[in-house]
Task: structure prediction
Amino acid sequence: MSPSTAQQGRTAAVGPGGRPATGGARRERWAGRPPTHGLAAAQPAAALAGIAALMVASIVIANPIQVAVVLGIILLVLVLSRRMHAAWPYLRFGLYITVFLFIVNPLVSQAGLDVLWETELGPLHIVISIQGVYFAVGMAVRLVAVVAAFALYTTLLDQDEQLAIMSRVSFRSGLVVSLATRMFPVLSRDAARISDAQRARGVELDRGSWRDKATRRLPLLGALISRSLERATDIAESMEARGYGRPGRRAWRRGRRWRTADVLIVLCAAAAVAAVLVGLATGIASFNYFPLTDDPFPDLSDPSWLVTAVALAAATLLLPGAVDTRLAIRRRAHDATLKRPSAGTPLQASEP
Amino acid sequence: MIDSIARLDHVTYTYPERQAPALRDVTLTLRPAEVVLVIGGSGSGKSTLLRALCGLVPHFHGGTFSGHAVVADQDTRTTEPRDLAEHVGMVFQDPENQAVMVSVERELAFGLENLGLAGSAISRLVEESLISLGLSRLRHAELATLSGGELQKVALAAVLAMQPQLLLLDEPTSQLDPVSSEDLLAAVRRLSEDTGSTIVLAEHRVERCLYLATRVLYMEDGAIRQDTDPQSFAAWAARGRRELLPPVARLFAGRLNGAASADDLVALPMTVKDARRRLALDETDVLVSADVRDAAPVAPATAAVPAPGPASSSRRAHRGRPAAAVEVRHLTAGYPPDRPVLDEVDLALWPGDLVAVMGENGAGKSTLVRHFNGMARPLTGKVFLGGTEVTSMSVAEAARTCAFLGQNPGAYFVRDSVADELDFSFAALGIASAEAESTRSMLISDLDLVALLDRDPRDLSGGERTRVALSIVSCGDPAVVVLDEPTRGMDPTHKNDLAALLRRWANAGRCVVVVTHDVEFAARTADRVVVLGDGGVLADAPVREALHGSLFFSTQINRLLRRELPGALTEDDVVWTAS
Result:
């Protein structure tokens, strides 16, 4: 193809006055209004409470059926909050670890009584038992639930809002968390830039044995550390120049009113935590895989189990239900009133 | 009435573990509402001067400090920078390295929170700053998603929100396209006019901001060599440092040919408007086309950039040739896939081309050139490098054909000396020692690296880093050389050197592609310009055709003479003659 054809292909008329038409419209993205879906639309403190409850549940509960229910709630919240796409890399990582768990488990878990298959592989004695399989499945579900809860926390909560919440307790600790969160993608970008730069000078980073790849990538680590230190120094300098460290600091938060739905989320979170505590106290949240696996569905006539089940079910139903689209609509309306300059809104503030 | 906002008295400062002072006996008084432009080469002490004015030197950096610095009636030796923050605001060179928070709105509030303002006051000031720089639509955006230009505006807005009496700006337009630069500088001017704030602006691109200045400082080797008003500075520069002047001032300085009296030099124009008025009133001389590019090398005032040779681009000349150096067919690229930044782009670049790729921030310039060596993969379409589809080779394999210098030269450095870096590149490319030796000698000579060979590349200045990184990626004697914003933070002298080198490479048959916002550099260096925007190629034409008549992507000389001498882009394209 000749250049002239290339020119004909996409050469458009230059705009009025010779100024090229702008490409800014192509980069339109959400940025001018807060999120309006699911738990992302809730008060940050309420969302944090909900996520914390789910995290606690996913970490503490051992009963695989109950953990599966918790995982279902987390996935539902991710979908309702439109964060599933952002959370997918985390979930994929969890699934990889799950596969690893299935492979390693027979080598380390040999206490099951009902042996399905056993063999000698060099120095290794491999035993696959029914209990071992149950254990691997249970651990996999639990691991994915924990990873999903972490993904929910990372992708859904506005880090700056978290900092504002934490400022009431310890601003410096909150700032460290916020900076670490902000720097993680920057560090990741730096790593990508350095890798790209090395490829561009002819270094094959992606071919050969793992040993070759590791040898070639090792110098990049030094460059990355050096770059990170430079960046950390620059940011510290900028913070100092903007008054960080002065006495009398005040935390600022956008004035958002608490809504009924926000309160409901906190109540649901409290109910879920209560359910977990009751489960721990009564022992029904715990679970034994070896030497014989417990029944994941204990006697329904046991009243303590029923209490926990009812509480967990309530949390299950309420947590996603509390953040449906009605909340989003209310949130939008609320934000509209915030933008309207009327008496009492933060925009009508007094002189500094 | 306050008579000064800042005063430096015989300040000499040396960074830790350095021998030479970064500031030498600097004495300076800044008065309210002044707009002070600080000019000087790389390493001349501009940034250090700004840091001394906000107390970061010596408090943050340590080192040896002598003399007195008083800012807002507080001695910076005994007052911490954080305590000066309510009087002094500083915007640093790299906006990515000064953001603290995650979202735009919170970033603007950070400094105000530190000052201890009430929440209602913070809300109002954040809102006003967002509006003043046109950032309202990005208020909830995460900083990680912003372009360099947008980040630069956020950094400025965050400091403006604190309403400083003294605003220090360290190359604030280095990452901005011409339109965004004008917007940003207009906001700075408004601030000075409306609030009486003093602005100190360190900048290499004088054509963008000299007209704003009420005072100019020229620094060299840590000392202030000139401290005067813009007209007197122009008169001084016209006598031997014309590269420091805006193109229209150079044009009129060139007319005087060294025979001018001091009175002649005092009235050099700073803007196109001034120059137009001068031309209209002039009854003795007129400007005519010089056809410099076809006839002679450029004038000495702007250093010798060789004219394009026979290998330079001409569409007709390339017809019938077997392969373009780079060919892009129906390229759709960018993220997310449903909103690609480039949509069905076609382009062909030829051996001997020296192409400037231009366009507004976010138009897809970097995205486009990252496809040339396979660093980015097309969503749809194909890219051919020397006739071979790029996706069929790894980036490392493509490195022998296509050298790629990204926006961050520091990312290339993984060894402890420049010499080791070169050896590492030759080894990575599998180039035998005999061939390597000749290429190495050529690169050291071309890029003036002799004095740098034993130095750690991380310790070099911005311009030196760029030269070393360019040598690192060029070890394979590539047919295509791509440079993404190579002049960012580069002083005029180094810029002219780089232009001359790229021209030599193009004349030798290489295809050289430069992504740049620097219109004057593009006009002086390139022979073809590709303007991107709206997802495609808005213009692809010889440099005169592409830049002529454009409102923003155009040079000062072209804006001045577009009707009288269409196609004239630089002062070297025209000559004075008696009317």
Q: What stands out?
A: The longest helix of chain B spans residues 178-195. The mean pLDDT of chain B is 86. Residues 149 and 176 of chain B are 5 Å apart (CA to CA).
